[in-house]
TrEMBL record, chain A:
Residues 11-89 form the Acyl-CoA dehydrogenase/oxidase N-terminal domain. The keyword Flavoprotein applies. The lineage of its organism: Bacteria, Pseudomonadati, Pseudomonadota, Gammaproteobacteria, Nevskiales. Coiled coil: none annotated. Keywords: FAD, Flavoprotein, Oxidoreductase. Belongs to the acyl-CoA dehydrogenase family. This is Alkylation response protein AidB-like acyl-CoA dehydrogenase. Pfam families: Acyl-CoA_dh_1, Acyl-CoA_dh_N. The keyword Nucleotide-binding does not apply. Its cofactor is FAD. One of its GO terms (molecular function) is flavin adenine dinucleotide binding. Residues 202-321 form the Acyl-CoA dehydrogenase/oxidase C-terminal domain. InterPro entries: AcylCo_DH-like_C, AcylCo_DH/oxidase_C, AcylCoA_DH/ox_N, AcylCoA_DH/ox_N_sf, AcylCoA_DH/oxidase_NM_dom_sf.
From TrEMBL, chain B:
GO terms for cellular component: plasma membrane. Residues 6-120 form the Acyl-CoA dehydrogenase/oxidase N-terminal domain. Residues 229-383 form the Acyl-CoA dehydrogenase/oxidase C-terminal domain. PANTHER family: ACYL-COA DEHYDROGENASE (PTHR43292), ACYL-COA DEHYDROGENASE FADE29 (PTHR43292:SF3). The keyword Flavoprotein applies. This is Alkylation response protein AidB-like acyl-CoA dehydrogenase. The lineage of its organism: Bacteria, Pseudomonadati, Pseudomonadota, Gammaproteobacteria, Nevskiales. It comes from Sinimarinibacterium flocculans.
């Protein structure tokens, strides 16, 4: 990580820490915009930091670390699409004030040659605040921005256990798209879709390692201060060893993520990048869930209270596991190593 | 020494193709230790000459001064070519060399590092019957008499000590004060009078480690590494090199050895078994993470940013992953795997003799500080959790 990026990342960490865990969207989204966090992956020629996917992931990890409620992930996907479709107008708009959201799982919809959108997009964060949504057709042959304020779109908020994200289902009933907002068609669209899915998986991996790191830090801190049997709980080796195993698991997930990002390099739209992203994501989200589960267990009764933060980590971790591409990655990895079953 | 990565890869690959002993696996299957030692020496000599035995040594030493990228390429290619593992030279190349480089006087380095390249063998004499995990409890006594230490005691579990020329010996020079403060680190010539070695049979059928008995053995003061009473600190760097650096090569080997698992699945006609495919798919990213952790650790060593506990994470993750790896092989091998086959010496941690490999994987969860000890280190030094109270009653 270069100096400029790590400085910006550190300041993001400070700013988010000052807002507190799971700070609301109203507070954190303006910060993301004002402090230029959306520009991390934008090429320098277009006024960004030119830090690519690895730079973006450093910020996704901060979002995870602070359980940030800002819809940074979908906004970064929209930005990635604008960058790679060469849409300077949208890069500028997204970086300055506009908010475009995107589904965090693959949508099931069609986009005709004439730009008519029909079908469904699930897990779309903060859709009520977005002007547009970034959509890819299920067939992968079209990627487009679609304005949300128009007839034929039914947006429904779906309450999730994870309260740090507000997800919507969007139903499109033959909505006429704007041809000027089609970002890619045909093979270009396939490549762009893959790029976006890969970014999404890596972002979720980063969110997970960030969240897991905070969850473990808080757990260790709690065990050091909570006393039972006349001593701090942290003195019990059974508990120390569980924490050490979690630490090793997080370190492995972080190392795998960092190494995969290096291996991907600038070829984010390759099939290899897609496979690396899936594996890194699955490895990281399962580590996150394991840490969050242990966090709850090791906090005892207080961990069951709504007031305490344990459940926020657990719920975000459980949701993270279901976002992105959730095909069984183990079987994908086996396919790569053994050939298709 | 620095080279364009791809040029180095081509060079190493070509060299390996021309130099790996033909059919070495067959030759090392069911063989005795003497034949093994001969074969290892021959292979080691070739690697040293080519400059590939010591990529982890610093600048200025033959074969040393390689960047992380170059070291990785060499280890990857060695693994890819399925070359014999330099198990006989393991302690010499890592434990002894890294300790001497960090703590040795110029004279000691000059006296011993070239010798390692000439094939001198080393063993590690730390553990004792009553000082295993609790290494600071070492009791082997060294008394200073004039310009020599006179040593009495017993070491145990010392890997390949029966072949060693020298021993990294941890001894007690002081019984007052905290136990760590009374330890001193010596270089013992195994041919000294009063040293006797007795191999111990292992569960794998090998007799890979030995007991060392020390009876009025004399070691010159000039063969002390670090000051008297500094033995604990010196021993920590030996252990850190074992826990971290050695795992770059071993992790990359494990990555290549995934093809042993896939090969076995195909050979056994279970390549389509969904449960096994899932286990394989879960294992492979863990192996990738082991490589990434080891690489990251090596980079920290090169950049001097190592923190306490880093090496423990590398070792703990590797050891658990190796256990999963060999356990999966064992499961796939099925009943066929239970029929005893001769094992391959120098074949590394994944020889494809699955019961052997599985049992041998306990080497990494027990030796060099067990998993439990690594967890203590991580919890105490990285997470800042308190140490056990010292006093206890039954
Ligand atoms: C294959 C092999 C090769 C070896 N090679 C060498 C060598 O070359 N040179 C050398 O000096 N030594 C060598 N050793 C010795 C090795 O370092 C010791 O076996 C190891 O440190 C454990 O000590 P121990 O066997 O006395 O077990 P113990 O210390 O008695 O441990 C028994 C069990 O108790 C656990 N335990 C111990 N203390 C704690 C604690 N504080 N908290 C929780 N659990 C604990 C251990 O993890 C282990 O599970 C080798 C060992 C093996 C198996």
């Amino acid at each position: 990580m270069n100096a400029e990026l790590s400085e910006l990342r550190d300041s993001a960490r400070q700013v988010l820490a000052a807002e507190g865990l799971a700070a609301p969207e109203d507070k954190t989204w303006p910060l993301a915009l004002d402090l230029g966090w959306l520009l991390v992956a934008v090429p320098e020629a277009q006024g960004g930091l030119g830090q690519g996917l690895a730079g973006a992931c450093a910020f996704h990890a901060e979002m995870g670390r602070s359980l940030c409620a800002a819809p940074y992930l979908p906004a970064m996907l929209a930005m990635e699409a604008a960058i790679h479709a060469g849409r300077e107008d949208w890069i500028e708009r997204l970086g300055a004030s506009g908010f475009v959201t995107a589904p965090l799982v693959d949508p099931t919809l069609t986009i005709t040659d004439g730009g008519i959108v029909a079908g469904m997009a699930s897990a779309v964060p903060s859709a009520d605040r977005a002007s547009h949504v970034l959509l890819g057709s299920e067939a992968g042959d079209c990627v487009a921005l679609v304005a949300l304020q128009q007839a034929g779109i039914d947006a429904r908020h779906r309450e999730t256990w994870d309260t740090t994200r507000r997800l919507f289902d969007l139903r499109f009933d033959n909505v006429a798209g704007d041809p000027s907002l089609v970002l890619a068609r045909g093979n270009d669209a396939h490549v762009l879709s893959r790029r976006l899915a890969t970014h999404r998986d890596f972002a979720l991996a980063a969110d997970a390692v960030g969240g897991a790191a905070t969850a473990l830090e808080m757990t260790v801190e709690y065990l050091k201060t909570r006393r039972q049997f006349g001593r701090p709980l942290a003195l019990f080796q059974a508990l120390k060893h569980r924490c050490a195993d979690l630490k090793a698991r997080i370190a492995a997930a972080e190392a795998l993520l960092a190494d995969s990002l290096v291996r991907v390099g600038t070829e984010v739209d390759s099939e290899r990048a897609e496979a690396l992203g899936k594996a890194a994501k699955s490895f990281a989200v399962s580590a996150y869930a394991a840490v969050a589960e242990e966090m709850l267990q090791l906090h005892g009764g207080i961990g069951m209270t709504a007031e305490h933060a344990c459940h926020l980590f657990l719920k975000r971790a459980l949701l993270d596991e279901q976002l992105g591409r959730c095909t069984s990655y183990e079987l994908d990895v086996a396919d790569t190593l053994l050939g298709a079953g | 020494m620095s080279q364009a990565p791809e040029a180095l890869r081509t060079e190493v690959r070509a060299w390996l193709q021309n130099n790996i002993p033909r059919d070495w696996r067959a030759a090392m299957t069911g063989t005795d230790q003497d034949a093994f030692v001969r074969a290892q020496r021959e292979w080691f000599g070739k690697l040293v000459k080519a400059g590939y035995a010591t990529p982890h040594w610093p600048e200025g030493w033959p074969g040393g001064g390689r960047s992380l990228a170059e070291q990785k390429i060499i280890y990857e290619e060695v693994a890819r070519a399925d070359a014999p593992r330099l198990i006989l030279f393991f302690v010499a190349l890592y434990h002894a060399a890294c300790t001497l480089i960090e703590w040795g006087t110029d004279e000691q380095k000059r006296a011993h590092l070239p010798g390692i390249l000439d094939g001198k063998l080393w063993c590690q004499g730390f553990s004792e019957p009553n000082a295993g995990s609790d290494l600071a409890a070492v009791r082997t006594r060294a008394e200073l008499r004039g310009d020599r230490y006179v040593i009495n005691g017993q070491k145990i579990w010392s890997t390949l000590a029966q072949h060693a020329d020298y021993c990294l010996l941890l001894v007690r020079t002081d019984t007052a004060g905290p136990p760590q403060a009374g330890l001193t680190y010596l270089l013992l010539d195994m041919r000294s009078k009063g040293v006797s070695v007795r191999p111990i049979a292992q569960i794998t059928g090998d007799d890979e480690f030995s007991e060392i008995f020390l009876d009025d053995v004399e070691v010159p003061v000039s063969d002390r590494v670090g000051g008297e009473g500094q033995g604990w600190a010196v021993a920590q760097s030996t252990l850190a090199s074992e826990r971290g650096l050695t795992l770059v090569e071993l992790s990359h080997r494990m990555r290549y050895a995934l093809n042993r698992i896939t090969g076995l699945m195909r050979a056994r006609g279970v390549a389509g078994d969904a449960a096994l495919r899932r286990d394989l798919g879960r294992l492979a990213p863990k192996v990738d993470a082991a490589c990434a952790l080891a690489d990251q650790y090596l980079l920290k060593r090169i950049e001097n940013t190592e923190a306490p506990g880093d090496a423990s994470i590398v070792k703990l993750h590797y050891a658990r992953t190796l256990r999963d790896f060999t356990a999966l092989g064992l499961r796939i091998a099925g009943l066929q795997g239970q029929y005893r086959e001769p094992f391959i010496r120098g074949g590394g941690m994944e020889t494809g003799n699955w019961p052997f490999d599985f049992m041998n994987s306990y080497n990494w969860t027990i030796a060099g500080g067990s998993d439990e000890i690594q967890r203590n280190i991580i919890a105490e030094r990285m997470l800042g959790m308190p140490r056990e109270p010292k006093d206890w009653r039954l």
